[in-house]
C-alpha cells in the first residue's frame, strides 16, 4: 500500500476525539503546520499532546489550544502563549512539565520499545518527589498533583525512573521525504521531529519536497521509513519568527 496521501486533511482523517499525539517542532521551527490545520478543521477534541511546547496563540499547536481541542499537554516549555497560561491556571488544561532532555529520551525510548529508564535529571526536585500541579480547580486550588516517582542509586548517585512515551499518532515536518517515508530534516528544524516520529503508533509526516525511492542518498537519511506510515506533500513552508530582532 502506498504511504502517500493527497492532502493533509486525508492524512489526519481517522484521528478521533481523545487521541494522543506526539508532535515535532521547537518553538515555531519545524512544526507540522498543515497537519495541525487539518486537525483544527476536523474539530476533534480531548487531545493529549506530547511536544516540546504548545506553539503561540495563533500558530502551531496554539491553534488547537485556542479552539479548546487539547485536554492535556506534556511539554518542557510553555512560554509565549497567553491562552495556554489562562487555560492552565483556570483548570481547563492539564499540564505535565518535564525536563527537555527527559522528554526527548521518553519519546526516543518509546520508539525503541524501552518502557522506562533512569535519569539524574529532576532528582531532589518536585519532578521526582511529586507535588507539581498538573491541573488546577477553578478556584486556584490544585485538583491533580504529580505523584512521586521511583528512585534508585547507581554508583553512589541517585536516579529517577521515567516512563517512555508512545502516542496514538505522531505529526512530523521534514524538508525532504521519499514515497517510502525516508526523511531528511533541515538543520535545526530536525529538533524533536525524529523523536516524535519514533514514538507514534501511526506517524504522519508533511514534507516540503517529495521524491521517489532511490533519489535520496542513504547516508543522508535522518529517519528511515520504517517509522513512517503516511506522507503528504505540502510544499514550501512559511517560516515564522517568534520575536524578530534587528540591529538599530
Structure in a nutshell:
The chain is an alpha/beta fold and 248 residues long. The protein has helices spanning 8-11, 33-42, 61-66, 82-89, 100-112, 126-129, 193-199, and strands at residues 4-5, 20-23, 47-50, 70-75, 94-97, 116-119, 133-136, 142-145, 151-154, 157-163, 167-178, 183-184, 200-211, 230-233. Strand 11 and strand 12 form a beta hairpin.
Quaternary organisation? single chain
Mean pLDDT: 96
Estimate the strand proportion.
Answer: 25-35%
Q: List low-pLDDT spans.
A: none
Give the termini distance in whole angstroms.
55 Å
Give a count of the beta strands, DSSP E runs of length 2 or more: 14
**Helical content, roughly?**
10-25%
Radius of gyration based on Cα positions = 18 Å
Summing up helix and strand content along with how strands pair, one would put the structural category as alpha/beta
Amino acid at each position: 500500500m502506498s504511504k502517500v496521501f493527497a492532502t493533509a486533511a486525508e492524512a489526519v482523517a481517522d484521528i478521533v476525539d481523545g487521541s494522543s499525539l506526539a508532535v515535532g517542532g521547537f518553538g515555531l521551527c519545524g512544526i507540522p503546520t498543515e497537519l495541525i490545520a487539518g486537525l483544527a478543521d476536523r474539530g476533534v477534541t480531548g487531545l493529549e499532546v506530547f511536544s516540546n511546547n504548545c506553539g503561540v496563540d495563533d500558530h502551531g499547536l496554539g491553534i488547537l489550544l485556542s479552539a479548546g481541542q487539547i485536554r492535556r499537554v506534556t511539554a518542557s516549555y510553555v512560554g509565549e502563549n497567553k491562552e495556554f497560561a489562562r487555560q492552565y491556571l483556570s483548570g481547563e488544561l492539564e499540564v505535565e512539565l518535564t525536563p527537555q532532555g527527559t522528554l526527548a529520551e521518553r519519546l526516543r525510548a518509546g520508539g525503541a520499545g524501552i518502557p522506562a529508564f533512569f535519569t539524574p535529571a529532576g532528582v531532589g526536585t518536585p519532578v521526582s518527589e511529586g507535588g507539581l500541579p498538573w491541573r488546577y480547580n477553578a478556584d486556584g486550588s490544585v485538583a491533580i498533583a504529580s505523584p512521586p516517582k521511583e528512585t534508585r542509586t547507581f554508583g553512589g548517585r541517585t536516579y529517577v525512573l521515567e516512563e517512555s512515551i508512545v502516542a496514538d499518532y505522531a505529526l512530523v515536518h521534514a524538508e525532504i521525504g521519499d514515497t517510502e517515508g525516508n526523511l531528511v530534516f533541515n538543520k535545526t528544524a530536525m529538533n524533536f521531529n525524529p523523536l516524535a516520529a519514533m514514538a507514534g503508533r501511526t506517524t504522519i509526516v508533511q514534507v516540503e519536497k517529495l521524491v521517489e525511492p532511490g533519489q535520496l542518498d542513504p547516508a543522508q537519511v535522518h529517519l528511515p521509513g520504517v517509522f513512517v506510515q503516511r506522507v503528504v506533500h505540502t510544499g514550501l513552508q512559511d517560516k515564522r519568527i517568534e520575536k524578530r530582532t534587528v540591529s538599530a
